[in-house]
Amino acid sequence: MAATASSPRASRWTRLPVLAQLRQSVGLQRGMLVTGLVLTAIFVLTAILAPALAPYGFSQLRGHDGAFGAQQPPSAEHWLGTTQGGYDVLSRLIWGSRTALLVIIVAVVASILVGVTLGLISGYFGGWLDRTLVVIADAIYAFPSLLLAIVLAIVISGGQSSMWGGILAAALSITVIFIPQYLRVTRAEVIRIKSEAFVESARVIGAGHARIMVRHVLRNSTRTLPLILTLNASEAILTLAGLGFLGFGIEPTAAAEWGYDLNKAVSDVTSGIWWTSVFPGTAIVLVVLGLTLVGESLNDLADPRLRKRAAGAEPVEDLGVDVGPDEDPATAATPETTKEAAL
Q1: Dihedral sign for Cα atoms in the order 217, 220, 223, 224
Q2: Residue pLDDT, tens place only, 293-326
Q3: If you compute the radius of gyration of the chain from its CA atoms, what whole number of angstroms results?
Q4: How far is CA 177 from the centre of its chain?
């Protein structure tokens, strides 16, 4: 009874998006996915628990014993040393994860809302509106993404260096870059789905355009968005770091940002002061690596050909053949072999 009652609950948990792909993965594919999930989880937890984990504030220059001092090497008081401006490197590193996470959330959510909506309208109605939106998306693609982000950051921020002003400026500038990707992916799926039989049936029974678009087309055209989301999140980190490194990021008194810290650490490298640049750079690499591994692994698992190639016995399971615990899957009966034996 207990096993029977708990099995539906367990099956519901295993059907969750990430857990379902984790069960399907094997070998190197599973290792990549687990590594990416661990790195991403560490990044998210660090950002959420930043006030509890950081020993000092992101703009704090003094402690109980006085000023920290500039370019101090790692010690018991400052585990990762101090920066050129006298900030604690570890605290800036931890608080910088929160800034990066906020930028990712704002940029990705805004990109999905605008890009998916435009892609749905463009693919469903077609005509001159579709051609206009596609031309605009192609025009945005023609610009270098970082250059476009710099121009938009200057226009949006208006010279303001507040925390939310800088975050919104960076996030919205990244959003403009990501919108064409969601638009084109959603548009392609909508064009394919709107000619399906169930959509035609909905039109025949008198369903309106809004109901068909939201209830039938949209629900079946957004399955690949989680894959793009993870990859775009890593691109958002790199774009934010690039803006900060070039001097268009967030001021240190407003919020911590890894790209800005790298910019200020350039002159330290030639002087043998390595800790001000190594730790922020390592943080960027690890976060981007984790998000990229998750996105690439989910992309591979979404392709049945790559998934079956990775899992040797999975095609047998797909055919609905029960293989015993002591039975070799290679010699198990399949529908083809069963038919031949019957003949």
Answers
A1: negative
A2: 888 877 766 665 555 544 444 443 443 444 444 4
A3: 25
A4: 15
Angle at 265 between CA 168 and CA 153, to 5 degrees: 20
Helix ranges (H only) for the chain are 2-14, 17-24, 27-48, 50-53, 89-125, 127-142, 145-157, 163-193, 197-204, 209-211, 219-220, 225-245, 258-264, 266-269, 275-302, 304-310, 314-318, 335-342
Contact, 225 vs 112, CB < 8 A? yes
The model's pTM: 0.77
247 CB contacts (<8 Å, ≥6 apart)? 263
DSSP 8-class letter at 331: G
Q: Which two tokens stand for residue 130?
A: 């579709």
Q: Vertex 141, ends 135 and 143: CA angle to 5°?
A: 115
Asked whether 290 and 35 are in contact (CB, 8 A), the reply is: yes
| pLDDT score of 47 more than 90 | yes
In three state form, how does the secondary structure of 101-121 look? HHHHHHHHHHHHHHHHHHHHH
Domains, the chain, with CATH or none: 11-311 (1.10.3720.10), 319-343 (no CATH)
Per-residue burial over 125-156, b = 16 or more CB atoms within 10 Å of its CB, e = otherwise: eeeeebeebbeebeebeeeebbebbbebbeeb
d(CA 181, CA 185): 6
Q: Provide the greatest CA pair distance for the chain.
A: 91
Phi-psi group of 323: left, alpha or beta (phi > 0 → left; psi -120 to 50 → alpha; rest → beta): beta
Considering only CA atoms, which of 98, 112, 102 is closest in space to residue 227?
A: 112
